[in-house]
Amino acid sequence: MATSSAFEGIYQGQRAIYLRADAYEAVMLPETGGNLIAFQDRITGCRFLREPSQEELARFRENPVVWGIPVLFPPNRYEDGRFPWRGRIYQLPVNEGERDNHLHGFLHAIPWEVESFGSKGSESFVTVAVRIDEDHPVYRRFPFRFTIRLRYALSPDGLAQQVAVRNDGDEPMPCLLAFHTTLNVPFAPGSKESDYSFKLTAGRRWEMNERMLPTGAFMELAPEEEAMKGAGADPFWTSLDHHYTAEPQMGRNRMELTDRKRGMTLVYDVGTSYKQWMLYNNGGRGEFICPEPQVNLVNAPNSNLPAEEIGLFGLEPGEIWEERARLYVKLRPS
């Protein structure tokens, strides 16, 4: 019979909420952006998410976006930090100096509140939230009142994620969100990077300029990009920092990372509200790959393309947007 538990502890010197269910363990860091920093199988030794080592802790605390599952809100790049919305232009800080862009929003490094954690039957869970209002430092740059609530549940069926954004203000607000999900390659002990292939429900690849901003045009896909939509491709066939439209297959929007040696596939099944994928692979150097489900096109508020096409939408006062995702393992039939 599967058992579960949830408890508070310390992870790399930081307050953490530990979830356990059957062989799985997950770790949430509420004070570092609500980052789900670990998801692993304690029996097989598989570690699916990239975690910081002791030597990497300083880098992680300074910029936690390539470990675990950071929340990006608003996600990715904005030209010159400009964020036009409903006739106003909000100025976000330029924090990518070499390209003069704002990058990755505000919420991935600030403290979130633990609302609840616990376990019942075979499932353990934690819910964290961040509330932005006039008293919060984020409000000075992004003057909207809203709540983001994030729930993770661990069970023998893997790690389930539920995210909701609620507009607590009196005027419409932009709702642009992504997860910079960072997966280990290899994730299984004894395997090599060359044992791995991956698939992605990508559609068309956006052309990017020298500032990594979309031009509005599309590029022809390479054979390896066509392969990742079907039979699968090498995760490190080239340096990837590419932006694609999402093109669900059979009603599902997902990435699959397969260890051919072990006959194991890590499935990252995300909702169809994510109309875009970013795909980053550490410059093709190995170690990890980031399939990033994203609501909107990079730099969407500065684009002239149709809002529906690029995922540029807002919430009216009192409205809630919600989406789900799941990480789980499937085994090759014996």
From TrEMBL:
Molecular functions (GO terms): carbohydrate binding; isomerase activity
The residues that cross the membrane are none
Listed GO biological process terms:
carbohydrate metabolic process
Put simply, this protein is called: Galactose mutarotase related enzyme
